Amino acid sequence: MKSAGGRLLAGLELHRDAAQPLHRQLYGQLRTQILTGSLPSGTRLPSTRTLVAELGVSRITVVSAFEQLTAEGFLRSRAGDGTYVDTLWSDNAPRQPLSRPPLSERGAATSSRGADLSGEAPQAWAPAESESFVASQVAASAFPAATWKRLLGRHAGSTEQFMNGYGDPHGHRPLREAIADYVNDVRGLGCTPDQVIVTSGAQQAFNVLAVLLLDAGDTVVVEDPGHISGRLAFQSQGCPVRGVPVDAEGAVLPDENDVESPARLACLTPARQHPLGIAMSPARRAEWIAWAERNGSWIVEDDCDSELRYRGKALPTLFGLDLSRHVITVGSFSKVLAPSIRLGYCVLPEDLVEPFASASSIIGRPPATVLQAALTDFLSEGHLHAHLRRTRRLYAARQDALLEAIDQRLSRRIQAEQVDAGLHVMGWLREPLDDIEVARGLAAGGVYTYPLGEYRVTRRLPPALLIGFAGTAEDHMPEAVGRMAAAWDRWEQLGARS
Amino acid sequence: MKSAGGRLLAGLELHRDAAQPLHRQLYGQLRTQILTGSLPSGTRLPSTRTLVAELGVSRITVVSAFEQLTAEGFLRSRAGDGTYVDTLWSDNAPRQPLSRPPLSERGAATSSRGADLSGEAPQAWAPAESESFVASQVAASAFPAATWKRLLGRHAGSTEQFMNGYGDPHGHRPLREAIADYVNDVRGLGCTPDQVIVTSGAQQAFNVLAVLLLDAGDTVVVEDPGHISGRLAFQSQGCPVRGVPVDAEGAVLPDENDVESPARLACLTPARQHPLGIAMSPARRAEWIAWAERNGSWIVEDDCDSELRYRGKALPTLFGLDLSRHVITVGSFSKVLAPSIRLGYCVLPEDLVEPFASASSIIGRPPATVLQAALTDFLSEGHLHAHLRRTRRLYAARQDALLEAIDQRLSRRIQAEQVDAGLHVMGWLREPLDDIEVARGLAAGGVYTYPLGEYRVTRRLPPALLIGFAGTAEDHMPEAVGRMAAAWDRWEQLGARS
């Protein structure tokens, strides 16, 4: 019969002034000693009286810790013979804590998909800030915060929102109606409220569609360059992607003679190719719809920032042109309102609605009811239209200011042209540099952009930066671009020295 | 050169009193005729003057519709020779709208995973209502709505929440700190805030973990019977599940001689086996941790309703007992607050935190910032503790009322025993009926429960219903159980006749 005595007592350190009560401290430290094997199974513990005396604590402290450890199977009392470490926990020789090698030392610990995903998130090295050139940045100051607060407040106190469990898996019915009105009006979709499902942003829709429509191994056509997180949603489901180039009419169709079987799905950005900004021509739209019909393939139409258009009319969505029901349109309020609101939608052919809702209730579940209720009022009371009018003016002015500042401060490094829609311009590098290196170099100087290279699938592209203009106020633009120019100079000098 | 004339005009129907302006109506109807091929390519349209006269509309209406259709590639003007349907759209013979066969006629339209998921959502036939016996129902009336409204209001108007893009992919930092304090205090996890990631409920955590840790084909051990949507998260990633039975000590370990390779992950509910309600014994906890360590497998510990305990002390989490860093704990505020709030968390070993955040920023993204900020205050100002104290008392009384009412009205049909924790009792059927049939029969009478049969993987179990008690007020319980008894009688009579 081993006895603990000295070793146990030497390892205990109780702090009277800690937030945690003494009996919890004693419990935790004894548990760790047992789990790590430094108190091996079968060890007899000192008597309550000894511990009280040695530790200078009350009897109730010791008894309370012992009781908890006994209830949890760490200790066992033998009548008239004291308390022992139970055999459950430390049959083996003393173990080191953290006996698993760190992930970095064993490649197979996460899945191959997990490995694909890690490090891909651009947030890691280009954090969004209140003012930055990150392309997904919106004007925080333009957000109608008082209105939003009022609408949230209108619904936040209602107990109704808590009465229906997780909420309707299709989304809040009044919001589906308001979204149908909105997309029919602004984007000409021609859908009923029954075809609309509310999601937590576009990404959730991509994830549900990937699970719903694709088996692992099914090929997906994506634009090259194209939307990063859309592509990752499909890749994370084990689906290989095939990039198609983008020309002046938009995404080019895949060469059907070139492959054994047609792709099961194509993910496209017809309204405004992401990131290049090209609007798909009517002819190309017709070709894609015919492609889907001919092959029985799906088209996922990412329509996410189509409303932010400064000049010219938007062309109608593929969804509105497709009579054969192969098109699914995904939209989001991240760009027109704010990404942190996490609200979006998916418009589906009728017979996909229920399968999508079932899959969504597993994969995503609808967003918080209070947010859906507030957005309903925001749409139906006309606040979104007013906000769009305001931000279109604001962003058009910010773009002009950006282009002017680039012209003055950065024209020897990049060439940028006005865009008709969206939140960023393409800044084409005048020298044959690696754009990912340039973006990292600028990030080291606190200036955040996205490099075009991150958007490529396999195709080599001329180097460019996506320069977002929505997050920087017009009168700050010269200074912000000046900082970019200075960061670039510093990065170049560092490179020249090394 | 074909001319449209009569056929075109016969197909047009414009409504002066419709909400849509006349030019949009004309545009839409012409577009449909072109898309469906009833106006084939090359068709010459009647002149503007003819249309104005025939339709009784203004010239600007016709011109505006023609301009839009021309911009979109549907029409083409030939100088001095009128307007023609462009060749883009209707090269083929007239097509029927809806040329894709409905999904129901082609099994391969959705993925095999999609097919697995459809119809699985129990919401479809057991909708949560303000008062029902659905096991995930909470007491809507007990929710501290005024406090929640105040806290949401505190953050809803701040523009700060809109300044950092999608928000920190780990979650709002102050909330991670508040959750770490909470789980360390209430559940003894012993984690740092850096190990906590905020999610939109537990389901999102399961989905991210499935992508992060598993490759398609990897086996996952699940409890049989067990959590439905947790299992589906893994199945939807193409991972086969292997059910292990549950005995009086909790989930039984898989027989390792029986299989070629050990499972890569086990998903367990040690605090309170879902749905049976058994707390895993200390010995069984030690065995599972040793299993994970021996096989290099992961344990996902679903700790979702562990805080709602009415009697006895909760045993510590596997996370807190595991020194070898193979355990990930998933928690949710769906049960302690409300499912429609969509907030949960995942506590990870240090080296999984960044991979999880990367994958999560693709698969889920963090919940809306305003909800995270409000929950931070709700936790740090002690409202959750107060709410837990109140609901524990409330639910204990509701459980007593349920058991008493069952005793009086349903004891010849079911046998139910008091549970120490959670939101439902198991109502074991006294007759060898199919519990899924019974639940559907009751649902037809407006009484919603979940049948145990829905929770099984492969094992046959005695028939039972999960009867939730949290959603029904104490003084309504006799009547609600009376309705259940009446619905049961009616269902039985229908069956006897058929």
List keywords for this structure.
homodimer, 498 residues, Arc Repressor Mutant, subunit A, Aspartate Aminotransferase, domain 1, 8-stranded mixed beta sheet, 14 strands, 39% helix, transcription (chains A, B), DNA-binding (chains A, B)
Give a short account of the largest sheet of chain A: 8 strands, mixed
CATH homologous superfamily title of the largest domain in chain A: Type I PLP-dependent aspartate aminotransferase-like (Major domain)
Structural class of chain A: alpha/beta
Quick check: average pLDDT of chain A? 85
- Termini separation of chain A comes to 67 Å
| Computed CA radius of gyration of chain A, to the nearest angstrom | 30 Å
Low-confidence stretches of chain A: 92-98, 118-125
Shape category of chain A: globular
The neighbouring-strand order within the major sheet of chain A is: 3-10-9-8-7-4-5-6
CATH architecture of the largest domain in chain A: 3-Layer(aba) Sandwich
CATH C-level category of the largest domain in chain A: Alpha Beta
Helix content of chain A: 25-40%
For the record, the count of structural domains of chain A works out to: 3
Q: What is the string of SSEs of chain A from the N terminus onward? A: HHHHEEHHHEHEHEEEHEHEEHHHEEHEEH
Please state the oligomeric state of the protein chains shown. Answer: homodimer
Measured by DSSP, the beta-strand proportion of chain A falls in 5-15%
GO molecular function, one term (chains A, B): transaminase activity
Region (Disordered) (chains A, B): 87-122
Domain HTH gntR-type (chains A, B): 20-88
Organism (chains A, B): Paenarthrobacter aromaticivorans
